[in-house]
Write the structure tokens for this entry.
Amino acid sequence: MAVEKMSIAKALNESLRKALETDPKVLVMGEDVGKLGGVFRITDGLQKDFGEGRVIDTPLAESGIVGTAIGLALRGYRPVVEIQFDGFVFPAYDQIVTQLAKMHARALGKIKMPVVIRIPYGGGIGAVEHHSESPEALFAHVAGLKVVSPSNAGDAYWMMQQAVQSDDPVIFFEPKRRYWDKGELDTESIPLPLHKAVVAREGNDLTLVAYGPMVKVCLEAAAAAQEEGKSIEVLDLRSMSPIDFDAVQASVEKTGRLVVVHEAPVFYGSGAEIAARITERCFYHLEAPVLRVGGYHAPYPPARLEDEYLPGLDRVLDAVDRSLAF
């Protein structure tokens, strides 16, 4: 078994390298992805090894980056584009939602759009405005886009492979404050389907559902709750569109309680859709209302206030206690 311990950042780098080696139609594009290797060094060394024709430093123009990727996809390429920070994606939002997401349907299935858009997202790194946002619900709401986020090195590697191989556009959210978290990667394993949720920790009393950066927080909360005799199940959603509702339902039917956790604001967040669907599906199994934990409905604050804004261990455990009190 080719098992190795590495960071999420390194796993993504290895996955992109593998994709470039495997398929000559794969291209990597973005601001500073070439010579610099990306601001988080996710593409470090790729331009040196594959050349400037396949790992391309672009102008600072997100709309142009995505528009060019759409044109390349029409010509048979598989572009993987990087949006340097989450808040920078909005100049390209029009291209993504009115062109990239619609092209397959507009062409009655004759045109495919194998484009991956990598977006480092979320807070926790002490960055300035427009560098710490969580806009995943905006993209999950748009039909025609797949939206995923890994929480560990193994998923980072395999989900990137699957995203690159997809004939549909994938918005690939990378939890930037977890880039340096290490985990095991088995490059010879059989990966889960891209949109399959996975139980990260077994439990019986309550289900915590999370994805990306909040999976680690939920695992820590489950460990803390166990010290008080509470058995918490943690489900790593992995995909925000489509959502593996069957996995969430199976867990809730076992535990009877659900708390959904994400960094993005609770208001109109992806947790609202999960709460509504599970309330419909599991009404007679629920022992308490579905609760949501997330950011506040406010612009992302300066770095010194991040700890107050981001949902941490205490806020998750408070929701667990409120649910178990019903």
